[in-house]
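queue> pop job 88
queue> type: inverse folding (structure -> sequence)
queue> payload:
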């Protein structure tokens, strides 16, 4: 048996690891094709040629959830010591650096908002309960705004929940409901982000790099610079079977013929497709899927095969799925010192600081330093993002989408009332991501394929765009769970897949949530 993965995001890397660990497949019989290096997909992080750093973002982790992720990472050696797994070193790191935000929301007057109360009216509470308890069949492809009134979107809760998970009011009511259930135990502590866990370094250095090295030691073939442009799919005994892959490497076309027992795992769609970097002085180019061609293969194989999903539900409205992030490389300690004094949090303990009156709806987070394995001791790095890059800034008279890094730092200093000298010699690298919340778009259940469609013989889908009941997208866990489900189903592995922890059925959590909602 040979297995081929199309795309090298965390779903593919996890799938390859499950094939080896639980399926007994030799690594030499596994190949991962990736068009854009480095391997790891959306979990990226890199030092640029000028010595500054860039990362598109980082996913939130918690040890109260992410059951499949921790199942995997409990067997992969970490980045800091060979006798510690990634899970071990992450748990130890968070025991040493405990998260407890003291400046979750900041208003236009640079006042740290009292977020001990959610700010709900009785109408807000009733509407939120109504949405939370509605069935997915009732919610269907409705939007959050179809269920909640305008005043709800001015509450402390909305600003915190929205920016923690990157929701917009026009996003899917189903996905919002799923988040409320999956992370109900985070509701009572959303003001402090006490449940959020961070990796020792950025998630590329802390998760992707150790995992790819483990795969390489087991003989897995990681092939970069290759675009899989087509699959030859035939019907065998009423089931779809992939017989051939078409590869494009720098314009050179080749094919891979599949045997009767061979498997294909496809990362359909990408939240970071079409992403682009700007510079300190220039904005990122405005790319789309027409430039990247990252959705083309899913669109091709889904045509006439509804069980393979409907990519148009997710990639057809960039204004509703786009936001921008930025990574700042500081070459003096003044900003970190000023921010730590203002927030009351040492770097790595505060989580997101959101400027709630920002036209861009800007948030930043100061990581524990160093955040990169190769980061010099005199360099500090932090990250931020804005949910409304199309709007004119409060202190910069143009949309964030038209700004280089220097403009973004001017806007940030305006919200904090800091002198620009805190960023002397700093470099800010903006990143535009046109499809970053595409998986939150309103959808029908049939728009996402199952990890292994009922009509499939040897093709699985391992991405953020598959259907897993009760779990939530925009998490590492969703891709890892999809991969584990796909591998176990295709190989007939009987080892139980870790169950989703239903905190929403815990009496203690329900009581704490009710108390917080009425605070």
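queue> result:
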């Amino acid at each position: 048996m040979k297995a081929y993965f199309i795309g090298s995001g965390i779903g593919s890397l996890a799938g390859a690891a499950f094939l080896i660990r639980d399926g007994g497949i030799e690594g030499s019989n596994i190949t991962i094709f990736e068009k854009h290096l480095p391997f790891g997909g959306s979990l990226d992080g890199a030092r640029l040629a000028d010595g500054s750093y860039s990362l598109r973002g980082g996913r939130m982790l918690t040890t109260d959830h992410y059951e499949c992720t921790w199942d995997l990472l409990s067997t992969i050696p970490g980045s800091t010591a060979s006798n510690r797994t990634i899970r071990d070193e992450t748990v130890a790191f968070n025991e040493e650096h405990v998260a407890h935000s003291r400046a979750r929301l900041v208003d236009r007057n640079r006042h740290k908002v009292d977020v001990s109360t959610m700010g709900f009216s009785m109408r807000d509470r009733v509407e939120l309960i109504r949405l939370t308890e509605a069935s997915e069949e009732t919610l269907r492809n409705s939007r959050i705004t179809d269920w909640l009134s305008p005043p709800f979107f001015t509450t402390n809760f909305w600003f915190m929940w929205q920016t923690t998970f990157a929701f917009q009011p026009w996003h899917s009511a189903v996905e919002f409901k799923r988040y409320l259930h999956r992370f109900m135990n985070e509701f009572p502590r959303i003001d402090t982000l006490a449940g959020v866990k961070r990796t020792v370094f950025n998630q590329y250095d802390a998760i992707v790099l150790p995992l790819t090295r483990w795969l390489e030691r087991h003989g897995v073939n990681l092939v970069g610079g290759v675009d899989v442009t087509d699959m030859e799919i035939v019907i065998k005994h009423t089931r779809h079977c992939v017989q051939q892959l078409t590869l494009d490497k720098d314009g050179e076309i080749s094919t891979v013929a599949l045997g009767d027992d061979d498997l294909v795992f496809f990362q359909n769609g990408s939240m970071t497709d079409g992403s682009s970097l700007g510079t300190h002085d220039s904005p990122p180019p405005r790319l789309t899927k027409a430039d990247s061609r990252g959705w083309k293969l899913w669109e091709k194989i889904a045509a006439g095969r509804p069980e393979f999903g409907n990519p148009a539900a997710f990639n057809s409205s960039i204004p509703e799925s786009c936001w921008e992030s930025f990574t700042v490389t500081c070459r003096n300690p003044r900003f970190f010192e000023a921010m730590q004094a203002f927030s009351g949090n040492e770097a790595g303990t505060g989580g997101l600081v959101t400027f709630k009156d920002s036209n861009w709806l800007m948030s930043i987070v100061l990581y524990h330093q160093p955040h990169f394995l190769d980061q010099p001791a005199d360099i500090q790095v932090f990250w931020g993002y804005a949910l409304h890059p199309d709007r004119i800034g409060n202190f910069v008279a143009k949309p964030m989408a038209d700004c280089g890094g220097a403009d973004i730092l001017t806007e940030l200093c305006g919200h904090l009332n800091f002198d620009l000298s805190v960023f002397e010699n700093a470099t800010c690298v903006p990143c535009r991501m046109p499809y970053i919340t595409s998986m939150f778009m309103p959808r029908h259940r049939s728009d996402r394929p199952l990890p292994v469609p009922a009509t499939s013989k040897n093709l699985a889908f391992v991405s953020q765009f598959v259907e897993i009941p009760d779990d939530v997208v925009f998490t590492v866990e969703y891709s890892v769970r999809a991969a584990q489900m796909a591998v176990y189903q295709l190989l007939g592995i009987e080892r139980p897949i870790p169950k989703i922890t239903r905190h929403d059925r815990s009496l203690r959590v329900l009581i704490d949530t009710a108390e917080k909602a009425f605070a």
